[in-house]
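*** Residues and shapes ***
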Amino acid sequence: MTEWDIKKLRILRTLAEQGTVTRAAEALHMTPSAVSQQLTNLARQLGVVLLEAQGRRVRLTDAAHLVLRHAEAVFAQLERADAELAGYLAGDAGEVRLGAFSTAVPALVVPAVAELRRAHPGVEVRVRETEAAESYELLSAGGVDLALSLAAHAPTARDRRFTRVTLMEDPLDVALPPGHPLRDAADLRLADLSGDPWIYGGSGPWSEIARGACEAAGFVPEQAHSASGWTAILAMVEAGMGVALVPRMVSSRASGVAVRVLSRDRPTRHVIAAVRRGAESAPAVAHVLTALRTVAAAR
């Protein structure tokens, strides 16, 4: 029977995710030579060629992709086994490391932690603010147990490494300066603001969301100012420097600006939670997911 080495299979998966031996070694806190040696040993154990030279890099062979398809099922089953064992040993207790994007921390994570302290005081949550790409790298590598992100920036549902749970829809509202002529308009549409100066990020996901929403409403927004933090964006709106699209999770706590719900052309983003496939049955992780769902449903 073929010998399957879980440690070496994880190294192969990390190489597939990171793209190069050097980056895989960094993610695994190993040396590149140690990574190469482990994969050479794995190829010998399995009796197939796993890597082929491609210039200065290596690429995974078809055999390597076949091995990884089966390995993902093994990893998921091991996560389930760990979850059941953790539940048996710890009962209603445990630590969950959670990575979340910035606006989700005060809006979802903090209330969920408060809910857990009441319902399951033995469950401890350690929170880490992360960008979407970083949170999934950490989740895959075991650096966090649960990741919160926007659906648009998460791996697809077909990614066999993770189980995704949709938590909520987060509509986008428009923030207007206090004296804006449309602050009291009865039927405000995004297209009504096509002539206004806009404030949004210079690059990255939020820049794409803001531009895409405006373009879907029929105009290209004039970017008057660029900022990535909501405190800075809302301060500029309050000063009359422009208008901005703001997630409901942020606009519900905004002050000093006129926040209007769009009657039409209202864009919406979706917030999801993800865990390593199989880990959702761990009692502590399941309690955190339940608390997040409860908070999200109440918004």
In short: The longest strand covers residues 162-176.
